[in-house]
């Protein structure tokens, strides 16, 4: 059970408080997305542009840092972690990314700082859980002289996290980042797979494969050459029809297991707005329908029954409860018959 950006269904994402809550709820791993500051410190943000997840837009002292950049093919305007020193970034405060969908979380706006990777590793080790960091736009960061892999491996190693058995998975959408990491560390690596498109950063290696090609049996065998698992979008396992309903599951879980890869799909969230239609609850014409809680437990049960090895979830409490229920309903060896 991987606390996605912490317990981000209940607290502003990527804050120590969100990670702490995920651990309190029983998460086995906590997930920071990693970007760099100007002085080369890794911090947890989903993207380096921070206007949606911090109060930077209301801070006149940083108005001069507003700019426009092209990152991984997309033009983005705002404020970027790579233009802030860690000391400057620490003066900002986190805000809820999805205030319309998660209005209760805005009660925590303005309270929490942007955490460093080192702080998150320290928290995970003190609380006895694993860490599941993602390199975000690693080719872009390498191109501006702030590569992510070196400080990531150095921070993990400083905490003794260097072995295949260490409670760590490093994930990335970009195979070039994972291939580089495979040369640098023995900790386990996970290739993220999106529903559409192709990874950035592989052009220089001549690799033009799409995510769909990577998810096919041949592509999975190739991934097994440098990684230990895949993190697919959940729709790659249970596609949705045009009406939002579930279609027949694909063979991805079986194919990946056949290639020796673990499977950790993303992202399981309880709000109707993220659930397939048949698991949503309430009156679709009601104004609060998208925020209302649907049957995440049923969605998780389906994926666990399909054999996934873990899940990224914004609601670790629901995921842990689902696992507990499924384990409790499983007959113990011989006990069902004997009893
Ligand atoms: O890392 C799993 C999942 O988080 C990947 O998508 O964009 O939410 O980081 P994203
Ligand atoms: Ca992520």
Please specify the SSE layout and strand pairing.
Layout: E1 2-4, H1 16-24, E2 29-31, E3 33-36, E4 42-44, E5 67-71, E6 74-78, H2 86-89, H3 117-127, E7 130-131, E8 134-135, H4 138-143, H5 149-158, E9 169-172, H6 175-184, E10 188-193, H7 211-215, H8 217-223, E11 229-232, H9 252-258, E12 262-263, H10 296-305, E13 312-313, H11 316-328, H12 335-338
Parallel strand pairs: 1-2, 1-13, 2-7, 3-8, 9-10, 10-11, 11-12
Antiparallel strand pairs: 3-4, 5-6
Helix pairs in contact: 1-3, 10-11
The structure holds SN-glycerol-3-phosphate and calcium ion.
SN-glycerol-3-phosphate binds next to loops.
Given helix and strand content, the structural type is alpha/beta
Order of helices and strands: EHEEEEEHHEEHHEHEHHEHEHEHH
Distance between the termini: 31 Å
Helix content: 25-40%
Mean pLDDT: 95
CATH evolutionary superfamily:
Phosphatidylinositol (PI) phosphodiesterase
Instruction: Report the CATH C-level class.
Output: Alpha Beta
As a whole number of angstroms, the C-alpha radius of gyration is 20 Å
Catalytic activity: a sn-glycero-3-phosphodiester + H2O = an alcohol + sn-glycerol 3-phosphate + H(+)
Family: Belongs to the glycerophosphoryl diester phosphodiesterase family.
EC number: 3.1.4.46
Enzyme class: hydrolase
Question: What does the model show?
Answer:
This protein is α/β, with parallel strands linked by helices. The chain has a single domain (2-46, 99-329), classed as Phosphatidylinositol (PI) phosphodiesterase (TIM Barrel, Alpha-Beta Barrel), CATH 3.20.20. The protein has helices at residues 16-24, 86-89, 117-127, 138-143, 149-158, 175-184, 211-215, 217-223, 252-258, 296-305, 316-328, 335-338, and strands spanning 2-4, 29-31, 33-36, 42-44, 67-71, 74-78, 130-131, 134-135, 169-172, 188-193, 229-232, 262-263, 312-313. The strands form four sheets. The protein has a four-stranded parallel β-sheet. It has a four-stranded parallel β-sheet with strand order 9-10-11-12. Strand 1, helix 1 (16-24) and strand 2 form a beta-alpha-beta unit. The two termini are 31 Å apart. The model has no long low-confidence stretch (mean pLDDT 95). Calcium ion (CA) is lined by residues 31, 33, 134. Keywords: Glycerol metabolism, Hydrolase, Signal. It comes from uncultured Acidimicrobiales bacterium.
């Amino acid at each position: 059970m991987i606390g996605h950006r912490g317990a981000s269904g209940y607290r502003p994402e990527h804050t120590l408080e969100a990670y702490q809550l995920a651990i309190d709820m029983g998460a086995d791993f906590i997930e920071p997305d990693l970007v760099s500051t100007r002085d080369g410190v890794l911090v947890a943000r989903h993207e380096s542009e921070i206007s949606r997840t911090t109060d930077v837009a209301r801070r006149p002292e940083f108005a001069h840092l507003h700019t426009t950049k092209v990152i991984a093919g997309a033009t983005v305007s705002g404020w970027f972690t790579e233009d802030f020193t860690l000391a400057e970034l620490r003066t900002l405060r986190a805000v809820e990314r999805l205030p319309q969908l998660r209005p209760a979380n805005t009660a925590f706006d303005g309270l929490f700082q942007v955490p460093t990777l080192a702080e998150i590793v320290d928290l995970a080790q003190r609380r006895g859980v694993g860490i599941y960091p993602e390199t975000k736009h690693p080719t872009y960061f390498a191109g501006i002289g702030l590569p992510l892999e070196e400080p990531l491996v150095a921070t993990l190693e400083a905490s003794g996290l260097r072995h295949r058995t260490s409670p760590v998975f490093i994930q990335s959408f970009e195979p070039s980042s994972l291939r580089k990491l495979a040369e640098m560390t023995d900790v386990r690596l996970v290739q993220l797979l999106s529903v559409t498109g192709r990874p950035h950063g592989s052009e220089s290696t001549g690799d033009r494969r799409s995510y769909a090609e990577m998810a096919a049996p041949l592509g999975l065998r190739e991934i097994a050459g440098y990684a230990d698992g895949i993190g697919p979008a959940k729709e790659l396992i249970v596609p949705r029809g045009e009406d939002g309903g579930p279609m027949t599951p694909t063979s991805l879980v079986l194919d990946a297991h056949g290639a020796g890869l673990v499977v950790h799909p993303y992202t399981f969230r309880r709000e109707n707005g993220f659930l397939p239609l048949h698991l949503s609850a309430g009156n679709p014409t009601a104004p609060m329908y998208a925020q209302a809680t649907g049957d995440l437990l049923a969605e998780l049960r389906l994926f666990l029954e399909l054999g996934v090895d873990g899940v990224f979830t914004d609601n670790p409490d629901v995921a842990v409860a689902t696992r507990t229920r499924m384990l409790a309903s499983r007959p113990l060896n011989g006990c069902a018959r004997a009893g």
